[in-house]
Write a structure and sequence with these properties.
With 283 residues, the chain is mostly helical. It contains twelve helices and no strands. It has one domain. Helix content is 72%, strand content 0%.
Amino acid sequence: MSATTVLPAEVYAPGLFERLRSWWGDVWVMTRRNLIHISREPMQLSDVTIQPVLFTLLFIYVFGSAMVLAGGGSYKAFALAGLLVMNLTTSSVGTAIGLSTDLATGVINRLRTLPMSPTSILVGRTISDLLAAALCSTIVAATGLAVGWRPTTGLAEVLAGFGVALLFSFALSWMNACLGMAVSGAESAQGIVFIVIFPLAFVSNVFVPTQGMPSWLATIANWNPVSAVASACRVLFGNPNPSGTIQAWPMQHPVAAAVIWSLALLAVAVPLAGRLYVRRTRD
């Protein structure tokens, strides 16, 4: 009787495309989980639905009545881009609070027991927040159109303006993800993020031209990435942009500056967020 030799079965190694498809499936599951969570607590969206309407009406009709732009032009047209960027900047705080809450309540630990990519948790969070930012942009634009704001450029330039703003919002979400994982709880995350975000949002040209600021403060504001994004949106929307007369490089090339700032933030924040996530979830 002859013995039969049984060869070991080859170990199946999925290809790059299959690994990417599996990873994207995990990302979509996490994104959908965050969106379902929001649908069950819709007041979480107040900062991207109610706040943009209130801020647009407040600044255009209350503060705007006393504003005169250097070189002329409608304050209503000037303010819309600033309101867009300001609302996207402040609403990005939700990324830090959401991640901190998931870490503190043990949700992340439960997710780690599942056969899924760890990076999908962070990417899913930032994508769901990007979708919220897109909703915020739509509401700001609709409110602006309702009160008389009009872009004067073509559709491609207008869409590019919103694209630049959303790219910056996405970069800020990753930065806030780092801040949220660097502290121990949601309350701490909210406090530290507002300390960073509020000066970033308000020491800028979002509401007023920087020419009237003290020289030292104007220099900070002109190099503030928020100012670059707001100026880029004004240029792409064809709205008044008094900052165009300032000799600082970001104000002379606002679209390029806005994109460079966003990509630089992503280049730093994405790998840093990964390291902080590993540190916070280490057994």
